[in-house]
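queue> pop job 88
queue> type: inverse folding (structure -> sequence)
queue> payload:
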């Protein structure tokens, strides 16, 4: 389960074969896939990250994967399932890859392979009206909300004198923000931007939290969920060549500006989504990356 992400349970599984993406700049035979020339991908409907619309894969992660598939000369075959099904399809080698804001973790990498981060998910706040919040200190004594089961529930519960609340879904969080019953809501960042675009009448906007200090996290351990985290595309352990080929393309997209363009397209700030925090390199070095690994970044 991605950090802060709820499971969409009970969704039917369907398969849609998407058209060949051309032109290609790599030989599809050079990478191992379950079906020659085809990349089998599983997603859950979670806009603006992943979804099927008119039999087309849409969303930020979908756009990134489509660009990678173009470079590798692969067709896409898409399975729609729920979040546990996504991970299981990769771990059981029923899919080549799964995408959609999946948080890197040491536990997950033990049973699968992660690409280099296609983006980093920053700590974002949904704010209503004209209120402004910049850091965790500014949240003290406020009405804070998130969705039941999201890890931010642990974080907001530790904010001094705050009133933490959990809701059955993101729509309820947005509604209480719009009516002033909540001061700040914690949700996946692009979901906030997407809501802002779809429902400007609600006057809900996104703000990014100033990074926490080590002292703040030491005093409130669950503040760690207010930090940004690495996402990744997730593949079977048996597909190291494919993982490497995809990571190479992701790294190239940082350099050529195409990732920044896609982040902007979907309502994100490239400076927030494409610059790793200092501790991220250490998290993966010696685990699933070499000791000298440097996370990709648009920062110079």
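queue> result:
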């Amino acid at each position: 389960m991605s950090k802060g992400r709820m499971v969409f349970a009970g969704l039917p599984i369907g398969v849609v074969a998407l058209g060949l993406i051309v032109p290609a700049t790599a030989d599809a035979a050079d990478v191992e896939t379950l079906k020659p020339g085809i990349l089998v991908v599983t997603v859950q409907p979670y806009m603006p990250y992943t979804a099927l619309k008119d039999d087309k894969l849409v969303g930020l992660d979908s756009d990134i994967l489509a660009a990678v598939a173009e470079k590798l000369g692969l067709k896409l075959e898409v399975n729609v399932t729920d979040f546990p099904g996504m991970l299981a399809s990769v771990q059981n080698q029923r899919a080549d890859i799964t995408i959609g804001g999946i948080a890197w973790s040491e536990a997950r990498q033990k049973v699968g392979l992660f690409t280099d981060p296609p983006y980093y998910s920053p700590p974002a706040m949904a704010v209503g009206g004209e209120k402004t919040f910049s850091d965790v200190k500014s949240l003290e004594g406020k009405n804070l909300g998130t969705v039941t089961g999201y890890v931010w529930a642990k974080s907001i519960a530790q904010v001094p004198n705050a009133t933490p609340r959990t809701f059955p879904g993101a729509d309820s969080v947005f509604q209480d923000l719009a009516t002033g019953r909540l001061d700040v809501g914690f949700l996946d960042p692009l979901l906030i931007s997407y809501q802002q675009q779809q429902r400007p009448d609600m006057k809900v906007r996104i703000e990014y939290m100033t990074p926490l200090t080590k002292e703040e996290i030491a005093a409130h351990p669950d503040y760690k969920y207010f930090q940004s985290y690495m996402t990744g595309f997730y593949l079977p352990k048996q597909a190291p060549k494919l993982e490497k080929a995809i990571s190479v393309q992701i790294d190239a997209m940082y350099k050529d500006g195409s990732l920044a363009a896609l982040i902007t397209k979907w309502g994100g700030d490239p400076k927030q989504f494409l610059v790793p925090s200092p501790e991220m390199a250490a998290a993966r070095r010696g685990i699933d990356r070499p000791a000298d690994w440097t996370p990709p970044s648009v920062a110079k």
